[in-house]
Design a protein that fits this description.
Chain lengths: 362, 362
């Protein structure tokens, strides 16, 4: 079998160097004779590692000092509930922008707690491509407790690169599938949250970056493990955190620094995405229906000209070591998720395979 | 350095055989060329593994068919919130029994949602030992939505082996630190829940065993990831579960079966606990203040006759490869947590060390 490249949308591949280091020290971490997953989260060794992981994340994203970083249980969907329960306070309404399945799922959860104004900001270009309205046309409602959006929709392959000006309304972003893929101006956000299982580490961990002045307004009914104030005071250790996931996230942050930080990572991500999009655009056999301006660099959905070839495509791809290319069931077709950990060689291998598949079957 | 034995209360040591297997297949699970933490939770391979883990747990605990088994995010403290949010329905009150720090912490969370009647069931024997009132004296309030208790308190070292008759009132148990250490009659319980990081796997996972007729009454404000109905319908995959922790739990379940199941495991746990308690009771230098009838087999706190020797004890123990014996800060002294994964050789090594320490310093 050739080298394996795993295009899973999440849980996604992790950097090979990270996995090899984790494997080597799996049963003997820091020479303690035990695994990092077997030590107390209150031990000096674990606390030092956890703090270093946070600092590395702060360095990577240039997180301002007036933001807390929390390492939480519950994944991204846990934060779908935690955000309204923390931010609504005595307000009754919040605004959600819709760009795909993930932003829609966040709305469902928020509606349990507030009156939600949903605004579909999707539109189509004159060429019939899917796009997103410019940020200047986004509705800003001063009465809303916050404005929520999802800058990268994994299923539709839509990514929003512009940042809106929301004034006093805190901007909340579900960055599960785009965090750490490029520099961002954290100071523009009230809250950034992300499930770990794309660009951070294994599933079961979520990271929350929250502006300090937004902490302290949680509704009474909030489970304490989701209360930003409780977890901020406890350095994310109000309860035992997902210690192994936190450790792996720390290894990923170190690896990102070794790559040259997010400027270098973005450059690589742009090159990877361009390679695949350019190939698709130059082909009459493959297609992607998203406008250039909002094409995701992380998740690239595409269709074959003949859907009846889908199964053949997937089985031949798997035989070539190219795994998990099936598109989400809601949209069908194919999808290549190419997060930070995917090397450009993986995208090259995919393009070569797609090219030869086209020649064989078109 | 001699062989390492890790007495951490949690995250605790995992079986050596499990850790070695996990390390060996860390980067290449089932020959897929990728880690189990890098595959989709929707993949056939992962779903098969997850189902097998559940079945193994069902076999080990003889879980009746009218109980659902859920693999959840959020740890034990997550369930402190999930239990009232799922079970209260339109009832307003629930009863909690107090036996130590963990049952008290559960009450704090439940009070956010219901009127809680707390009953301290601790008492002392004529010898001045700490004990628990017999189950026949526990208050059963037919108006309560449920009765909650914690059968093993890790900090105080108290374990309750008897089962109360609660009639129509569902009995809810936080079994985080005793689950899988002995057979239990699941049919006596409405809900059993457990954070994983003692006898199941790494932190970040909790397991919920819930009688089906109790599902479907969640309060509207519940985060969906904690809603038993939502997770039961989705086979615990409403959101991406903590996939790696689930996998490791599955390996632990297989290992428990290989040990001969819970009858054999209990026998071993009885022998391990007896070895340490008998040594302590035969010494004038060490003491444990819990009555025989409720002494924990999992967490054995003890004190030295001279507290000023505590630091010396801990440093000499560490040098001898006996880790994490410091007692919880709330009670001081020492604590040896000897969950399923601790081999009897570890307890023997501890007793030998304690014996020589006594001879040297008494």
């Amino acid at each position: 079998m050739s080298k394996i490249f795993n295009f899973c949308a999440g849980p996604a591949m992790l950097p090979t160097a990270v996995m090899e280091k984790a494997q080597a020290e799996f049963c003997n971490w820091q020479g303690l004779g035990v695994s990092v997953m077997e030590v107390s989260h209150r031990s000096p060794e674990y606390i030092a590692m956890a703090a270093e992981a946070e600092q590395d994340l702060r360095d990577l994203l240039a997180i301002p000092e007036n933001y807390k970083v929390l390492f939480c249980h519950g994944g991204g969907r846990g934060q779908f509930a935690a955000v309204p329960l923390n931010l609504l306070g005595d307000k009754l309404e919040a605004d959600y922008l819709l760009t795909g399945q993930w932003s829609k799922s966040a709305v469902v959860e928020a509606k349990k707690h507030a009156r939600i104004t949903e605004t579909d900001i999707m539109t189509t270009t004159i060429d019939g491509k899917v796009t997103v309205k410019p940020t200047t046309e986004w509705p800003i409602n001063a009465g809303a407790a916050y404005l929520h959006y999802c800058p990268n929709e994994t299923i539709e392959g839509i990514e929003i690169f512009d940042l809106p000006e929301t004034g006093v309304v805190p901007l909340v972003a579900d960055m599960s599938s785009t965090i750490l893929s490029r520099p961002i101006d954290v100071s523009k956000f009230g809250i950034i949250y992300a499930g770990a299982q794309k660009n951070i580490g294994p599933s079961g961990l979520s990271i929350v970056i929250v502006r300090e002045d937004l902490i302290g307004y949680a509704r009474k009914a909030i489970p304490s493990i989701f209360d930003y104030e409780v977890q901020a005071k406890a350095d994310s250790m109000f309860n035992t955190p997902p210690t192994y996931a936190w450790y792996l996230a720390g290894l990923v942050f170190k690896w990102l620094k070794e790559q040259g930080g997010l400027v270098a990572v973005e450059k690589n991500n742009i090159a990877k995405a361009a390679l695949l999009y350019n190939f698709i655009d130059g082909s009459n056999f493959y297609s992607n229906n998203v406008d250039n301006s909002v094409r995701s660099r992380m998740n690239i959905p595409f269709n074959l000209a003949d859907d009846s070839l889908n199964d053949t495509f997937l089985s031949e791809a798997k035989a070539a070591g190219l795994l998990t290319l099936k598109g989400h069931k809601l949209v069908g077709g194919m999808r290549a998720s190419i997060y930070n950990a995917m090397p450009i060689e993986g995208v090259q291998a995919l393009v070569e395979f797609m090219n030869s598949f086209e020649k064989k079957h078109a």
